[in-house]
Amino acid sequence: MYPTVSNLSTAPREAAMSHPLQLEAEVLKLRTKHPFIIARGGQSDYRTVWVRLRDGDGNEGWGEAAPTRFYGETPESVLSALDLYAGAMPADPFDIEESERRWHLLLRHNPSARSALSAALHDLVGKRLGIPVYRLWGLDPAKAPQSTFTIGLDTAERMRAKVLEAGQYPILKIKLGTDRDVEILRTIREATDREIRVDANCGWTVKQTIAMLPVLREYGVTVLEQPLPPNELEGLAAITRRSDIPVIADESCLTAVDIPPLVGKVDGINIKLAKCGSLREALRMIAIARAHGMMVMVGCMIESSLAITAAAHFTPLVDIVDLDGAALLDADPFVGAAIDNGRVTLPTGPGLGVRRR
Length: 357
Ligand code: MG
Description:
Enolase-like, domain 1; 2 domains; eight-stranded parallel sheet; 13 strands; 33% helix; globular; binds magnesium ion
């Protein structure tokens, strides 16, 4: 099934004509190779929104919104939000800080919609200057840590097959938060001696997590992501005190304001553009986390190489990379950052450097 791009909206959405930057949005249909199941469910079919901002000279900046119901967004809500944001487009794409502030004030929440606009502005600025965004930020792409590859929940037999299929990836991320977590870990460990990190996606209690800590240690797990529901910060603190495996907050940490309450309670935070709403906010979060001596991870949703490439641009600043969203797809409509063998390679073209496949 390829290409998987289809225009579900009735027509390209044009921005208000009085603004030089024109906005178009289009829904992309994505399909994962295998159903992608985590503790709170999952599926094979996903929809994201491809955003294009065009200036008067015909330059285009691209971004992608990967909405999730868990964070209150759908492709339809993204399109509605974009209709509103289209009325507040900057005349100058370099006006990034003020544009992001204006959009946030105009309609709060809707982070994936705003992150697509943020990526598109950065892309457009890089293209206007003829340099990659990471060069604009003064970053060396060779400094990016290796990315994990996620093995979603499945039967023992199919999880073994997925581990073999992911043979080129040196670090695996295992989804837990079920009533058969020990069995899953044993299955994976018997199938491979590669590094394993786990994500319980809010699926455990404090008691369950503390009982799991020796098991995680036994199977050589190196990172524990979000064992508890988002608001259980004291519980996270109790776990972190007992754990010699770093505990990373994902669902508990959406934007920069979530970091101070987590200081001393977890070892690190997981930044995703679809949660924080902008590339600039991601950079602020990295700075704030570093000021508190916290580890920084960058993660993703199920999304194409367009959104993955935007997030990949700040990988030289983080400790843990989990950008397998596009690698899990059956067909990726874009070519951008590659995570072959777990190694993150950023494109060398201007802006985000992404093109249609
Ligand atoms: Mg996670």
